[in-house]
Amino acid sequence: MGPVQPPQRKGRMPQYSKNNLVELQNKFDELECKGVFRKPEDVGISVEYINPSFLVKKASGGFRLVTAFADVGRYSKPQPSLMPDVDSTLRPIAQWKYIIKV
To answer: Which SUPFAM superfamilies does its entry note (predicted)?
Structure first.
């Protein structure tokens, strides 16, 4: 995070119909069962900031769970890192004895 913390804000439920709220809860439950989400109290974390999550309809049917990190993203600063170039990627590959393509 940068030198300034994001302001606190209230968590809000999306203005969905009953069916969509049930679908949203089902998606959270499914991802929790898969280990993608954990309850903060289960891992000893105190919540300082909440990002809104909502459903986006997929073209193939069903819904995708999306979380908007834009608000908190304005207050974070990226870690400096070096991006690999083509040469630094190809040199290790050139030393391999086998390349298996499936």
So the answer is: DNA/RNA polymerases
Structure letter (DSSP) for residue 20: H
In the chain, beta strands by DSSP E:
53-57, 63-67
**Taking the domains of the chain in order of start, what are their residue ranges?**
18-94
Tokens 């990002």 found at:
51
Both tokens of 5, joined, read 């913390």
Residue type, 88: S
For 3-56, the pLDDT digits (tens) are: 667 666 666 667 888 888 898 899 999 999 999 989 889 999 888 778 888 889
